[in-house]
Specification:
Number of helices of chain A: 7
Strand content of chain B: 15-25%
Helix content of chain A: 25-40%
Distance between the termini of chain B: 40 Å
CATH superfamily of chain A: P-loop containing nucleotide triphosphate hydrolases
Helix content of chain B: 40-55%
Structural class of chain B: alpha+beta
Number of domains of chain A: 1
Strand content of chain A: 25-35%
Radius of gyration of chain A: 17 Å
Order of helices and strands of chain A: EEEHEEHEHHHEHEHEE
Distance between the termini of chain A: 30 Å
Number of helices of chain B: 26
Radius of gyration of chain B: 33 Å
Oligomer: heterodimer
Number of strands of chain B: 23
Largest sheet of chain B: 6 strands, mixed, barrel
Shape of chain B: elongated
Shape of chain A: globular
C-alpha cells in the first residue's frame, strides 16, 4: 500500500454546451499523500471547483485516471460513487450548505445515516464531531439560529463525523468575515495536526499559506506547485 | 433500515409542517380526489361488488332463460322469459341447485285491516324463497310447501318496518287476520329488521296461492313470468349450471315453439350480477372513471407543486448527494413526503367520502322511487383497502416523477453559489405537459357532465302534449279476490267512471293502462296492404295504450279526425283504434287514416292481433317514457280499454287488473288544485269499493318526475365531477404559470432592461398558457369525438335527446376552458409585467 491518497493522471474535463467545447481542466497530474494539507489556488474560473468536484466524485473526468486510496474511481457506478463519497470524503462548502429543516445534530448525523450506521454509534460519532468543533452545546439548534462561523463549524463537524480519508473544502471562508474565517482556518489546521488529509480550494493567498503545499491552477492547468516553508 | 425509514418519516413530517400552504393545498386537492374516488367506489361496492349480507349470499344465483338476439342493455342484457310452467320444468329436471324459487317482486298487495285499505309493495314468492337466502322470520314461521298451492289458505309474512309502523310492534300480530287482495288472510310471521328483499318489499305472499301456474295456451300465460333465484350446490360452477339449464331450455323451446322458440339459452350467474343491469354497471364504471380522472388531475396538481418544491430544494438534494445519499435514498425521502401527504389527503378524503356516502344514502333511499334496500353505500373494509391503494397510487403518481427528475440533477451545478440544479428545462417541459394533460382530462369530464346535464334537463322539459300539472292520476289494482272475472272488473270501472264524471270535483275522468302516466307499451305492427317478411324483423315499432272513452278529453288532446271511443266499441263487434297524428302522417302521409287498418304482431311474427280499423286521429301526445329507447318514435295508437292489444280477439272484455285513473279537476288548473281533490278521488273510489286503496296519487308530472329522480342524482354527480375538474385544472394552470413566472423573473428583468414593454411580457406569458390550452383542448375535444364514433351506442345509452357529438356542448366546453385558462394565466402574467428590472437583475 502506498502513502498516496489521491492520484490524478492526465485528468481532463471538457464541457459541451451548444456545440461549444470548454476545457475546464487539461491534463492535470496530482499526487496528494495521506495526512497532507493541500490548497488549490487560482483566479476565478480557472477550474479549481471543477477539480474539487472531480476529487469529490461529484463529477467525472472526461479523460485521465483518478486513484483514491489505491483504487481507480473514474469508472465507478453512481451508487458506488455515492458510497465512497459517504465513507471516504468529507465536504466543506463555501456556503455551508447545512439543511435548514434539520437540527445541527441531525445535519451532522445525516451522512452516518446514509451509511446505515446504528443509532447509538451515530450518536456517539456526531456528538464527538460536534464537540471537536466546539458546537456540542448547539446540537439542538437549527442552522438559521447560528452565525455564519458557527454554521461553518457545523459543516466541518458534518464532514468529520464519518472519519473520512480526506476533507475537501471549497472556499470554506468565502462567506465569512475575517474573524470567523481565521477561526475556521484555525480549526482546519488543528484537524490537520490531528492527522487529517485536507484539500482546500481558495483564492485567498493568506489562507492558502495554511497548507503544506499550494497548487496553482490557471486555465485548467497546473502552473505551479509551491511548498509552504512554515506556518 | 427501519430506523432510517422512521427518520425519513420524521424529517418528512417536519418539512411538510414547515410548508403549511403547500401542505394544505396539496391535502385539499388530494382529499377531493381520493374522497371522490372513494365515494364512487363505495357506490360500486354497495351496488354490485359487496353482494348480499344473507347467510347463503355466496351461493345465490339468478336464473334466466334468454333470447340472445334480443339485446336490451337498459334492462338486464337480454330479453328473458320463464313462464311458471317453464320454472316448474327446470326445477324438476335440474341437479345444479339445492333449491330454486320463483318470485314476482315490486308487486301491489291490497291489504285492509281495521277497516283501512292500504297498498303495500310486496313479493309473491315460492315456498323455498327465504330458505334459499338463509333468512328466517324473527316472529312466527316461514312459508311451508302447502302454503304455496292454488287454493291454499292465504298467509303472509310482513317486514319489521311494517310490523312497527302499522301493527304497533304487537307480538300478537302472528295469527292476525287481514283482508289481502280481497280475501281473508293470516299473518304468519315477521321478517328480521332491515329485511326487504328483493328490492323494497314490505310483505311476502306465497306465489301459487295468488298466481297459480297458467296453462301454456292461456291468454294470461305471458303475464305469469316470474323471476327465478336459486341456491347453487357447493362446488358447482355457474357455467355448469348454465349449461344444464340451457339443455332444459332447449327442450322447452322445441316442445313449445309458439312461446319459447327464441328463449333457448340459459344464463345462471351470481344473483348480484342479475340484479345489476349492464347499463347501470356501465354507468357506475363510467362515473368511477370520471372520479379517477379527477384524482389524476389532483395528482397532477400535487405533482406540479412537488416540481416547484424540487426546484427550490435542488441545493438541499445536492448536499445530501454530496454527503453520500444514493439516488434511491433521495427518491425514498421525497416519496416518503409524498406518501405522508397522500395519507393525510386520504384521511381527509375518507371524511369527504363519509359525508358524501351519507348524502347519497339519504338521497337515494328517501326518494319516491328508492334504490333497492340491500344497496347501501358504506366505508367498509374493502373500501378502506381501496383508499389505501388510492393513497399509495396518488403518492406514487404525484411524487415519483418529481423525485426521479430531481434526483437526476447535477449536484455540482446545484452546489454552485447561485445554482438551481440543471433540471429546470426538463421540469418546465414536464409541468407544461402536465397542464396539457389536466386540460385534456377536464375537457372529457366537462363534455360528459354537460351532456348528462342537458339530458336530464331535456327529460324534465319533455313536452308531453298535455297539461301534466293540471290532472290527477292514481293507480289501482283489482285483485282476484274481489274481482275474479274480467266482467266484474269492467262493472267496477264502468261504475267508477260514472261516479267520477258525476262528481262536482271533476270535469272529466278516464282510464288508461299507462303506468303512472309515464310508461306506455310499444310493440310491432303491420299496415294493411304492405308486404312484410315472414319473421317480424322489418315491422315497425309503435307505442300503444289501452284507454277508456273520454281519455282524450280528460288529457286535453284534440281529436283531429273521426271520433273518440264509445262504450259500444268492442273487439267482438269491430276491432277499432285511434292513432296519433304522428302515426297517421308516417303511414298515410297526406291521405286520411280513417277507415285504414293495421294489426299488432307479437311472438316473433307468429301472434297476430285482429286488423284494427282506424276510427280517429288524435293530436300527438308523448307516449314513450322520458328515457332513451332506440327505434321507438312518436307514432302511437290507442285501443279501447277492454280490448286486447296483442293476440286474437277475446270473446269478452280483457281482464284489466291494474289501471291508472286520471281525472281533470273542476276549477283552477294546477298541481295545488289536483292535490286538493285527491281525497275526493279516493272517496269516490271507496264509494264503489270500500276496500280498494289508491296509490301513486299525484299529477302526471309528479309521477314522471319520480322516475327521473335517480337520473337527477346522476346528473348532479356529473356536475360535481365537472365543477371539481375545472377548479382543479384552474388551480393547476395558475400554479404552473405562477411558478414559471417566478422562475423567469430574471429573464423578464433582462427583457425589460432591453426595452420590452409590459404588453410584450404579458403576451409572452399568455402565449405560453394559450399553447398549453390549445394542445389540451385539441386532444380533449378530438379524442372525445373519436371515442363517440367508437363507442357511440354505449354512450348514447346514457343520454336523452342529445347526441354525444352535440356541437354546442363541445363549443361550450372549449369556451369555458378558454375563459378559465385566461383567468388562471392572467394573474401570473400581470405579475410578470410588474417585475422591476433592477430588482430582478440583482436577484441572482
Amino acid at each position: 500500500m502506498s502513502d498516496s491518497l489521491i492520484k490524478l493522471e492526465g485528468v481532463t474535463k471538457v464541457f459541451l454546451t451548444d456545440e461549444v467545447e470548454t476545457h475546464a481542466l487539461s491534463g492535470i497530474h496530482m499526487d496528494i499523500k495521506k495526512g497532507e494539507y493541500v490548497s488549490i489556488a487560482g483566479p476565478s474560473g480557472c477550474g479549481k471547483s471543477t477539480l474539487l468536484s472531480i476529487l469529490g466524485l461529484l463529477d467525472s473526468p472526461t479523460e485521465g485516471s483518478y486513484i483514491l486510496n489505491d483504487r481507480p474511481v473514474q469508472g465507478l457506478s453512481l451508487p458506488e460513487r455515492a458510497r465512497i463519497r459517504n465513507r471516504e470524503i468529507g465536504f466543506i462548502f463555501q456556503s455551508f450548505n447545512l439543511i435548514g429543516d434539520l437540527t445541527v445534530y441531525e445535519n451532522v448525523e445525516l451522512p452516518l445515516t446514509y451509511r446505515g450506521m446504528p443509532a447509538a454509534e451515530r450518536k456517539a460519532a456526531a456528538t464527538e464531531a460536534l464537540e471537536k468543533v466546539g458546537m456540542g452545546h448547539r446540537a439542538k439548534h437549527l442552522p438559521s439560529q447560528l452565525s455564519g462561523g458557527q454554521q461553518q463549524r457545523v459543516a466541518v463537524a458534518r464532514a468529520l463525523a464519518g472519519k473520512p480519508a480526506v476533507l475537501l473544502a471549497d472556499e470554506p471562508t468565502g462567506n465569512l468575515d475575517s474573524k470567523n474565517g481565521d477561526s475556521v482556518m484555525q480549526l482546519l489546521a488543528e484537524l490537520h495536526k490531528g492527522g487529517a488529509t485536507i484539500v482546500m480550494v481558495t483564492h485567498d493567498t493568506r489562507f492558502a499559506r495554511h497548507a503544506d503545499r499550494t497548487i496553482h491552477i490557471f486555465d485548467g492547468r497546473v502552473v505551479q506547485e509551491q511548498v509552504e516553508q512554515a506556518h | 433500515m427501519i430506523s432510517s425509514i422512521l427518520q425519513d418519516l420524521r424529517i418528512g413530517f417536519r418539512v411538510l409542517l414547515k410548508e403549511k400552504s403547500f401542505c394544505l393545498l396539496a391535502v385539499f386537492v388530494l382529499a377531493l380526489g381520493i374522497g371522490g374516488v372513494t365515494t364512487m367506489f363505495s357506490v360500486i361496492n354497495g351496488t354490485m361488488l359487496r353482494g348480499f349480507s344473507y347467510p347463503n349470499a355466496d351461493r345465490l344465483a339468478g336464473v334466466q332463460v334468454i333470447d340472445v338476439t334480443q339485446k336490451n342493455a337498459n334492462v338486464n342484457g337480454f330479453g328473458s322469459q320463464i313462464f311458471t310452467l317453464d320454472y316448474e320444468a327446470i326445477r324438476e329436471q335440474q341437479k345444479s341447485f339445492d333449491l330454486l324459487a320463483a318470485y314476482i317482486n315490486g308487486a301491489t298487495v291490497n291489504v285492509t285491516f281495521n277497516g283501512v285499505p292500504q297498498r303495500y309493495t310486496g313479493a309473491y314468492v315460492s315456498a323455498d324463497f327465504f330458505r334459499i337466502l338463509g333468512v328466517s322470520p324473527v316472529l312466527g314461521r316461514d312459508f311451508a310447501p302447502d302454503d304455496d298451492k292454488a287454493g291454499a289458505a292465504k298467509v303472509a309474512l310482513i317486514s319489521t318496518q311494517l310490523w312497527q309502523r302499522d301493527f304497533g310492534s304487537s307480538p300478537g300480530v302472528v295469527g292476525k287476520a287481514i283482508r289481502l287482495n280481497g280475501k281473508s288472510a293470516t299473518i304468519i310471521g315477521v321478517m328480521p329488521p332491515g329485511f326487504s328483499f328483493p328490492v323494497n318489499e314490505q310483505i311476502w305472499i306465497p306465489l301459487y296461492c295468488e298466481y297459480p301456474p297458467f296453462p301454456r295456451n292461456s291468454p294470461n300465460a305471458q303475464g305469469a313470468n316470474p323471476a327465478v333465484l336459486g341456491l347453487i350446490k357447493r362446488g358447482v360452477p355457474f357455467d355448469q349450471a348454465t349449461a344444464e339449464v340451457t339443455t332444459i331450455a332447449h327442450q322447452l323451446a322445441k316442445a313449445f315453439p309458439d312461446t319459447n322458440k327464441k328463449f333457448d339459452t340459459a344464463l345462471v350467474e351470481p344473483l348480484i350480477k342479475t340484479f345489476t343491469p349492464p347499463a347501470l354497471t356501465q354507468l357506475l364504471w363510467t362515473m368511477l372513471a370520471c372520479c379517477v380522472g379527477i384524482l389524476l388531475i389532483a395528482c397532477v396538481n400535487v405533482m406540479n407543486m412537488q416540481f416547484a418544491r424540487a426546484a427550490l430544494r435542488a441545493k438541499e438534494l445536492a448536499v445530501r448527494s454530496s454527503l453520500g445519499a444514493t439516488r434511491f435514498r433521495l427518491i425514498r425521502q421525497m416519496l416518503t413526503e409524498s406518501l405522508l401527504l397522500a395519507s393525510v389527503g386520504a384521511l381527509a378524503g375518507i371524511g369527504v367520502a363519509y359525508w358524501a356516502t351519507d348524502w347519497l344514502n339519504a338521497l337515494t333511499h328517501a326518494q319516491a322511487n328508492p334504490i333497492p334496500s340491500y344497496i347501501t353505500f358504506d366505508i367498509d373494509r374493502s373500501v378502506l383497502f381501496f383508499v389505501v391503494g388510492s393513497a399509495v397510487l396518488a403518492a406514487l403518481a404525484s411524487g415519483l416523477i418529481p423525485a426521479w427528475i430531481s434526483s437526476r440533477a447535477s449536484a455540482v451545478e446545484a452546489l454552485k453559489e447561485s445554482g438551481r440544479g440543471n433540471t429546470g428545462r426538463a421540469i418546465g417541459v414536464i409541468t407544461r405537459g402536465l397542464v396539457v394533460f389536466q386540460i385534456f382530462i377536464t375537457c372529457i369530464l366537462l363534455i360528459a357532465s354537460l351532456l348528462q346535464l342537458q339530458s336530464i334537463l331535456r327529460q324534465q322539459r319533455v313536452d308531453y302534449g298535455y297539461d301534466t300539472d293540471g290532472l290527477l292520476a292514481a293507480r289501482m289494482a283489482l285483485m282476484d279476490g274481489d274481482y275474479p272475472t274480467p266482467e266484474a272488473r269492467k262493472l267496477f270501472f264502468d261504475r267508477l267512471m260514472r261516479e267520477l264524471r258525476a262528481s262536482p270535483d271533476f270535469e272529466n275522468a278516464a282510464l288508461t293502462n299507462r303506468f303512472r302516466m309515464t310508461f306506455s307499451g310499444n310493440g310491432k305492427i303491420e299496415i294493411e296492404g304492405r308486404a312484410y317478411k315472414t319473421d317480424d324483423s322489418d315491422r315497425p315499432l309503435a307505442n300503444f295504450e289501452q284507454v277508456s272513452e273520454g281519455y282524450f278529453d280528460t288529457l286535453g288532446a284534440k281529436i283531429r279526425e273521426g271520433r273518440d271511443f264509445n262504450l259500444d266499441d268492442t273487439d267482438m263487434k269491430l276491432p277499432v283504434a285511434i292513432v296519433n297524428a304522428a302515426f297517421a302522417k308516417k303511414y298515410y302521409g297526406t291521405e286520411s287514416a280513417l277507415g285504414r287498418r293495421f294489426r299488432t304482431v307479437g311472438n316473433n311474427g307468429q301472434l297476430f292481433g285482429p286488423w284494427r280499423t282506424i276510427i280517429g286521429v288524435v293530436s300527438t301526445v308523448r307516449m314513450p317514457a322520458p328515457f332513451n329507447q332506440p327505434n321507438v318514435d312518436a307514432t302511437g295508437f290507442y285501443v279501447p280499454y277492454f280490448s286486447s292489444t296483442f293476440g286474437p280477439v277475446q270473446p269478452g272484455p280483457v281482464s284489466q287488473q291494474f289501471a291508472t285513473v286520471i281525472a281533470r279537476p273542476r276549477g283552477a288548473a294546477g298541481p295545488a288544485r289536483a292535490h286538493a281533490v285527491s281525497a275526493s278521488l279516493q272517496r269516490t273510489v271507496n264509494q264503489v269499493d270500500a276496500n280498494l286503496p289508491l296509490y301513486f296519487v299525484g299529477t302526471p308530472r309528479e309521477n314522471q318526475d319520480t322516475f327521473l329522480a335517480q337520473n337527477r342524482i346522476v346528473a348532479a354527480m356529473f356536475s360535481i365531477f365537472g365543477a371539481v375538474a375545472i377548479i382543479l385544472s384552474a388551480v393547476g394552470l395558475y400554479g404552473v404559470m405562477s411558478f414559471s413566472v417566478n422562475q423567469r423573473t430574471q429573464e423578464f428583468g433582462i427583457r425589460m432592461a432591453l426595452g420590452a414593454d409590459t404588453n410584450r411580457i404579458l403576451q409572452m406569458v399568455l402565449r405560453q398558457g394559450a399553447i398549453q390550452l390549445a394542445i389540451g383542448l385539441a386532444l380533449g375535444l378530438g379524442l372525445t369525438l373519436l371515442a363517440t364514433f367508437a363507442f357511440g351506442d354505449a354512450i348514447a345509452n346514457f343520454l336523452f335527446q342529445i347526441s354525444p357529438r352535440d356541437p354546442l356542448t363541445y363549443a361550450a366546453v372549449g369556451l369555458l376552458l378558454t375563459a378559465v385558462a385566461l383567468i388562471s394565466t392572467l394573474v401570473p402574467a400581470r405579475r410578470a409585467t410588474l417585475v422591476d428590472p433592477m430588482i430582478a437583475l440583482r436577484a441572482e
